[in-house]
Amino acid sequence: MPCRIEPTSRVAAPVTAPLPAGLEWIAADLERLAADGLERPHRIRDGRQGAAIELDGRRLVNLGSNDYLGYAGDVRLTKAASKAACAEGFGAGASPLVSGHSRSHERLERAIADLLDVPEAISFASGFAANSATIAALVGPGDVIASDERNHASIIDGCRLSRADVLVYPHRDVAGAARILAGARAARRRLVVTDTLFSMDGTIAPVADLCAVARRHEAMLFVDEAHATGVFGPRGSGLVEAAGCADGIHIRTGTLSKALGAAGGFVAGHADLIRWLRHRARAWIFSTAHPPAVAAAATRGIELVAAEPHRRVELLAAAATFRQRLAARGLDLGGAEAQIVPIVAGAAEAAVALSARLAEAGFFVPAIRPPSVPPGRSLVRASLSWLHTDSDLTRLADALVSCRP
Ligand SMILES: Cc1ncc(COP(=O)(O)O)c(C=O)c1O
Predict the structure, then answer these.
(1) How remote is the CA of residue 185 from the centroid of ligand 1, in Å?
(2) Ligand 1 atom, smallest distance to 152 CA
(3) Which residue, 6, 94, 195, 221, could crosslink 98 as a Cys pair with Cβ 3.0–4.6 Å?
(4) What is the pLDDT of residues 1-32, one digit of tens each?
């Protein structure tokens, strides 16, 4: 049942009127962003995600999506969504707590709990909401959070929202996390938070070592598997499963929007943790549930992860070969070890220029700049998908070598 793809239409840039009094500061600040090489392009995609993508009317090999297993454009997810939309309507109509939690949401939460092999799960409208609401529901004033310096913005915002004391440890520094916890013995609660696969760096957290440290200091351990769900672990549940340390982790979150090809986020763990979140996670309580069709598509994504394990195995093998090829040719990958492969460019302008040269060569590899990465560490980030062929990745490696400054 492939959907008809409308022909590309270019959208004319809107004519902007001058900002009204009171908002003029925005024009000045936007100019400053542009001068610092930090202006963000607003791109329009035509058609669906895939190994190739049509952006602003140009067809490019697509290294700029998180569709790691190729399910975002898979017609099996579209069919599951259409079926649920026909049965349950499109909008959820209310927050989950009132009447928005449909049979499709219930099925999804069971599928997530089964995938992660935990008693219960709760789904959110986004991974961002899952992280920020959950951290704020677990700790508060008088508590201490130990947070990796490269954690995702949703974790950083959750920490701020909680009003706990947030102490940041150097990237993947287990001893640094331990020092924070040792100094926080008097705190009411202690929480260690980390991404498992870091979204900008493609590096992997020392999950098993963090478990040991959290246990020793009687701290809670929260891990975000956003980029690892579906990709790592024998059953595809993520890096916790791959590290074999599920018992030491109190809170596992993730997103349904990346390898699973749909949208939404989740938290999984003990039944009482999930019950607590239903009482205290404000982004779940005070926000409309995501559409049942989206929940049904995500459930189908989870089923496909179980049915098609070869996709994650092949993706990780292709990623390892790709990284070896680039490292052998002297590119700085900043320690990447997964399907997210950053090529460090340094200054923001250098990353933008490299991304533009790659686009000329036929590849969409987005530039990542502050505040997504620290100043001076701008990069282009290649997100590999199972859909890429060996020829795509060989040509990309050649292009990266010839386009670098
Ligand atoms: C590590 C990490 N956590 C959470 C999220 C948020 O997930 P979502 O896109 O579902 O809001 C992202 C999204 O990019 C992410 O990279």
Answers:
(1) 31
(2) 1
(3) 94
(4) 344 444 444 555 566 789 999 999 999 999 99
Give the C-alpha separation, 373 to 359, whole Å. Answer: 22
* Atom 8 of ligand 1, residue of closest alpha carbon: 127
CATH, range 75-307: 3.40.640.10
- Indicate the class that CATH gives domain 39-69+309-403: alpha beta
Nearest residue by C-alpha to atom 7 in ligand 1: 127
* Pocket of ligand 1, beta carbon within 6 A: 126-128, 131, 152, 154, 195, 199, 224, 226-227, 255, 257, 265
Mean pLDDT throughout 263-274? 98
**Contact of 69 with 259, CB cutoff 8 Å:** yes
Compare 126 and 334 and report the one with higher pLDDT. 126
Residues ≥6 apart with Cβ < 8 Å to 29:
none
Distance CA 148, CA 198 (A): 10
| Closest approach atom of ligand 1 to CA 154 | 4
Return the half-sphere exposure (C-beta side, CA atoms, 13 A cut-off) of residue 46. 15
Span from the CA of 151 to the centroid of ligand 1 (angstroms)? 11
Residue 199 among the catalytic residues: yes
Instruction: Determine contact, residues 155/131, Cβ cutoff 8 Å.
Output: yes
The domains of the chain are located at 39-69+309-403, 75-307
pLDDT, tens digit (0-9, with 9 covering 90-100), for 159-181: 999 999 999 999 999 999 999 99
Q: Annotated catalytic residue: which of 199, 237, 378, 383?
A: 199
Q: Which residue has the tokens 């959290």?
A: 214
CB 221 within 8 A of CB 240: no
Which residues 6+ apart lie within 8 Å of 225 measured at CB?
A: 196, 197, 237, 238, 239, 240, 252, 253, 254
DSSP letter for each residue of 250-264: SEEEEESSSTTSS--
- 83 in catalytic set: no
What does the block give as tokens for 144?
């201490």
Q: What is the spatial distance between Cα 272 and Cα 283, in angstroms, rounded to a whole number? A: 18
Give distance in angstroms: CA of 398 to centre of ligand 1: 30
Which residue has 């595809």 as its token pair? 236
Question: Residue 111: what residue type?
Answer: A
Q: What is the pLDDT of residues 293-340, one digit of tens each?
A: 999 999 999 999 999 999 999 999 999 999 999 999 999 999 999 999
Provide the pLDDT confidence category of residue 404 given band limits of 50, 70 and 90: confident
